[in-house]
Amino acid sequence: MRQNLKAYKKVNIESSMLAADPHQVVLMMLDGALESIALAKGAIERKDLANKSKMMTKAVNILSALRSALDKDAEPKVSENFDNLYSYCINKLDDVNISLVTAGLDEVTGYIKPLRDAWKDMPEESKQEGIELLKQKDQSRNQAIQA
User: What percent of the chain has pLDDT over 90?
Assistant: First the structure.
């Protein structure tokens, strides 16, 4: 039964990702990072080192993916700031993974949660503007490839 539930959850997440716009994908990733950090904290407190490692790896992978997705050409300064934030958080998670001192998890959550909340509360007009800019960038890229 547990295996079926895991399979359903995985398919549900994959389906949601396919149907989501880029804004929703980032929100889902931020939610996933926060959830993984919370689960890692619980695992550390229970001394469940196997689950701690799994959740820490998941959180680091999500933050790494967010970091690698930054568009450094469009907004270099903003991208640099986010790159520094994600890099710091990843390093802090790596430290916690070794030290098992959960205060570092609270610190990372303190940086990621306000970002997630701001992303969630972004006005619809701003979301649509960002999606339109992505479409224009994709069209330009496709035209350059065809030329």
Answer: 63
Cα separation, 76 vs 122, in Å, equals 21
Residue 87 pLDDT more than 70? Answer: yes
- As given in the structure block, the two tokens for residue 10 are 């995985």
Q: Residue 116: which of 57, 36, 33, 59 has the closest Cα?
A: 33
Beta strands in 6-135 (DSSP E): none
Please report, as a single letter, which amino acid is at residue 100: L
Looking at 3.10.20.310, 3.30.70.270, 1.20.120.340, 3.40.50.300, the CATH number of the domain 2-146 comes to: 1.20.120.340
Measured CA to CA, the distance from residue 125 to residue 132 in angstroms comes to 11
Distance separating alpha carbons of residues 84 and 92, to the nearest angstrom: 12
Q: If pLDDT is split at 50, 70 and 90, which confidence band does 73 have? A: confident
Q: How far is CA 101 from CA 6, 66, 83, 91, 106, in A?
A: 29, 25, 24, 14, 10
What is the pTM assigned to this prediction? 0.79
